[in-house]
Amino acid sequence: MPKQARAIATRETIVDAAAEVFAERSFASATLADVIARAGVTQGSLYFHFASKHELAAHLIREQHARSIALPAGVDGARAMIEVSLALARQIQSDRIVQAGLRLSTESLEQFPELVAHPYEAWAEASAALIERAIELGELAPDLDPAAAGRVLRSSFTGIQVASRVTADWVDLVDRLEELWRIVLPGLAAPGRLDELLALLPAVFGGADAGDAEVSGSGASAATG
Question: What pLDDT is attached to residue 115?
């Protein structure tokens, strides 16, 4: 294997191992020795790629941000809003980098002040853009404030994912998300469109499994816990 390819593979191994460690343990209690043991690499290899535990954890937060929100291909408006949230819920259930990034950004705010606010802000902005488009399509109420609604959706999702992690290790997250949409859609819907919006939920959630909520890699980046 060429030297550059080996270096890339080693870096990926380290990142994957670090994601497992930080998903399981707090930033304070996790150590680079834990990561080295999990990755099966030398201390020198790890330090070649990451100068410190802080740098490695910051990389995971950035990577989680890059993965967490992408616009689904081929859908628009309200359905896109719902599918984005479901894709994120599935990532939280199955993607260790997403799990690690969320834990780091919610439990270690003081360690990463320059990183943790931006994903939440970006997610609210991405949600606002989808809401604005749904208003243009006549699906959502014309007097709705997209920025305010985007913040509410971001904060609501954050709340249910944290509660789901604490109470059920995220096993019930998709169910809790569907409940959330059933409760908030009546407050968002344009007159005469609520039944249509509620009908999206069984269409999106009904057959959803880990492979159903594929998203395009070119979507709007945002993230959160």
Answer: 83
| Of the candidates 172, 158, 160, 137, the residue with the CA atom closest to the CA atom of residue 222 | 158
What integer pLDDT is reported at residue 207 of this predicted model? 56
Residue 5 lies in a domain: yes
Partnered with residue 140 across adjacent β-strands are: 189
Residues 67 and 213: beta-carbon distance below 8 Å? no
Q: Specify the CATH number for the domain of residue 47.
A: 1.10.10.60
- Amino acid found at 73: A
Taking alpha carbons only, the member of 18, 40, 46, 173 closest to residue 104 is 18
What does the pLDDT read at residue 212? Answer: 41
For residue 71, the enclosing domain spans 62-206
The pLDDT of residue 180: 98
Spatial CA neighbour of 18 closest among 66, 69, 52, 68? 52
Question: What pLDDT is attached to residue 219?
Answer: 36
Residue 112: strand, helix, or coil: coil
Q: Measured at the alpha carbon of residue 93, what is the angle toward residues 90 and 98, in degrees to the nearest 5?
A: 90
Mark the ranges of the chain whose per-residue pLDDT is less than 50: 208-225
